[in-house]
Amino acid sequence: MSVVILDFGSQYTRLIARRFRELGAYSVILPGNAPLERIQQESPLGIVLSGGPSSVYDESAPKPAPGVLDLDVPVLGICYGMQFLAQQAGGDVKRAGRREYGKADLTRYGGQLFEGVVGEFVAWMSHSDSVTRLPEGYEVVAETDDTPVTAIENTQRRRYGVQFHPEVVHTPKGTQLLLNFLKVCAAPLDWTAEHIVEELVQGVQEQVGEGKVLLGISGGVDSSTLALLLARAVGDRLTAVFIDHGLLRLGEREQVEAALTPLGVHLVTVDAREQFLGALAGVSDPEEKRKIIGREFIRAFEKEAREYGPFDFLAQGTLYPDVIESSGGEGAANIKSHHNVGGLPDDLAFKLVEPFRTLFKDEVRQIAALLGLPDHIRMRHPFPGPGLAIRILGDITPEKLDILKRVDDIFISGLREFRLYDSCSQALAVLTPIRSVGVMGDERTYSYTCALRAVSTDDFMTAEWARLPYDFLSTMSNRIVNQVHEINRVVYDITGKPPATIEWE
Ligand SMILES: Nc1ncnc2c1ncn2[C@@H]1O[C@H](COP(=O)(O)OP(=O)(O)OP(=O)(O)O)[C@@H](O)[C@H]1O
Ligand SMILES: O=c1[nH]c(=O)c2[nH+]cn([C@@H]3O[C@H](COP(=O)(O)O)[C@@H](O)[C@H]3O)c2[nH]1
Ligand SMILES: NC(=O)CC[C@H](N)C(=O)O
Ligand SMILES: [Mg+2]
Questions:
Q1: Which ligand gives the minimal distance to the CA of 225?
Q2: I need a surface site. Which of 59, 377, 391, 418 has the fewest CB within 10 A?
Q3: 30 by DSSP, 3-state: which?
Q4: CA distance 456 to 454
């Protein structure tokens, strides 16, 4: 039994499922036109129609399959979904005179969906069409200055529609609406991390059968959690490979080996430093670097597969943000090709096992706690697969790598020493190609500028720059300039995501 989310191409569809998970409800996402029988297989308790880029009055507008809206279950339409509900019930939808993007204040709200909500209601809007005539049996239950029909309901038929997106964080009270909808559906709110783990384990077992799995492991939270999950699913048919590509931080290889050995998984460390640094020599374009790294990772995995295999399956700790940033696939733009998604070569010989592909970082951390991953790995700041390669702007040389490793080590050890590591979600140092004039010991210097960056975020989709204390930043700046002679200037990055991203490349 689940709530079925029909996807009409919204950027936010997975966030709807994520909010339901947070509320303890089980949901599945199916294509907008999924056949009635497929939906019935899920024994639906309710149906959500997602948003989407189309307009309901277009000839080619996607629609739920015949019979789906005749099911006697509650239906919630979001944005495109609400417009579809209204049109289908006999109302009108037209391109509005005024489009609404971003935040809008509801000037009035009420009704069943808003039960328990008090005070001002800020709604996140993203639409250019609007419902202009209400279908029979429906009532308007919310409005904004620009959109008189912002939420509708037909409580007798248990049909609800909202023009805004209750699933995004920019609609702060939106979760209450989703909870109210789940209550109308009488959906059980007992979907816990344990259930999610069971489902993931089962999914892996079905996919892999009796096959052998090679896991790319980095010592980060995603792949380490995955190691424990896979050990449950396939036992000793798992081999974990940790690749030292020469782009790791100071002492990282030894630290990762020490941290992973107690997990009890068969672990192989590969020295692929020459391979990666050779392939990257002289390359300065960020996307080109990312693609080369993606390809070399796979080449390295293939080599280990020949040694310890054969392996049909390659497991990676890919998360949803890696997917959405890498691909234009789900209606989103290509921001950067994450090495494990957009950077994969076309001739990939493995079948991918990526159980976390629909999850966000904080959800993986919950699963990690359940599987007993030690806290020092579970709460470690993320470190990107391409490592320091995307923190050295421009081409990579052994000299620059050596500089950045020392800067990074001072910054990260400093955060731990001053007990600030856990106050931010990720911290990093960047080596810029900028050289500037300084004066040290009465001598003129002409040396590199490095940037320090620290951010606060839960899901790494959006982030704020961390307000680290000035005194701490001052100490870091002194230490870096004194200990790393190639640096004579330190700057702190005070940009959020958006408009910047967390990494600089
Ligand atoms: N050095 C490496 N050796 C082998 N596999 C790696 C390496 N670095 C990254 N990977 C693979 O790429 C995936 C994505 O990397 P990513 O950094 O996003 O996740 P993570 O390292 O597991 O966790 P975290 O985000 O906390 O660093 C990893 O889950 C892992 O499967
Ligand atoms: O494994 C990875 N392979 C990659 O190619 C990659 N690019 C970015 N990141 C990490 O993803 C999060 C979001 O980063 P951005 O804001 O820079 O896109 C941050 O946590 C980044 O460190 C990567 N991780
Ligand atoms: N975000 C949406 O679902 C948009 C629906 C429709 N395309 C509109 O612009 O109104
Ligand atoms: Mg990592």
A1: 1
A2: 59
A3: strand
A4: 7
Q: How far is the CA of 126 from the centre of ligand 3 (A)?
A: 6
Q: Among all chains, which residue has been given the structure tokens 């209400």?
A: 134
221 and 377 Cβ atoms separated by less than 8 Å: yes
Residue numbers annotated as active site: 79, 165, 167
pLDDT in tens, 468-477: 999 999 999 9
pLDDT at 327: 65
Read off the pLDDT of residues 274-319 as tens digits, 9 standing for 90 and up.
Answer: 999 999 999 999 999 999 999 999 999 999 999 998 999 999 999 9
Contact 207, 355 (CB under 8 A): no
Asked if the structure places residue 383 within a domain, the reply is no
Q: Which of 72-81, 358-367, 431-440 has the lowest mean pLDDT?
A: 358-367
Residue 464 forms beta bridges with which residues? 456
Say if residue 348 is in the same domain as residue 273. yes
Asked if the structure places residue 504 within a domain, the reply is no
Expressed in angstroms and rounded, the spacing between residue 286 Cα and the centre of ligand 2 is 13
Q: Is 236 in the same domain as 372?
A: yes
Identify whether 387 is part of a domain. Answer: no
Q: Are residues 353 and 221 in the same domain?
A: yes
- Structural domain for 115, as ranges: 2-185
Nearest CA to ligand 3 atom 5: 80
